[in-house]
Amino acid sequence: MQLAFYFDQTRCTGCYACAVACKDWHDVPAGPASWMRVTTIERGKYPHPFIAFACTPCYHCAQPACVPACPANAISKRGEDGIVVVDRDACLGKDKCQMCLEACPYRAPQFGDEADAKMQKCDFCIDRWAEGKPPICVAGCPMRALDAGPITKMESRYGKLHEAEGIRYHEGLRPSLVCKPRRQVYLASY
Length: 190
Description:
By secondary structure, this protein is α+β, with helices and mostly antiparallel strands. It has 6 helices and 7 strands; from the N terminus they run E-H-E-E-H-E-E-H-H-H-E-H-E.
């Protein structure tokens, strides 16, 4: 089984509740490390502006680039659910390595601002998942723009789209993400 995230870009308002809930739940201190990032995509101009938001945690890829990139073997993919986990004790730290960050096109590996910080990233809220609860970002989203579960269930429930504005699907890595993208719509001028 491969667990996956679902992201409905048409519902996301860029409120950052998912990112705040994640930092709070995992005790990630204020600073550059954020396991869930929200980016703003802006295009166009009046009278046809376009804005969308993209939520980007670790997508727990089917073939994660970070795993073979780690010289310390600190990153692995769990066989039972496909969650990509990091052994922070084995990590060489940001001052000596950062190979995982360079390998990941989604910039999921994160480092704090402390000296020789160890890599950290979304772990799909393994503790919550073990209790039958969704990841905290899913539970914390007031617009219900996020969901999580087995990828087959996410695809049967929401479709098989894997890209949205600001999120590109990488065929080699196969990120475990199902999306409902926001489309730019032009309205007739009156």
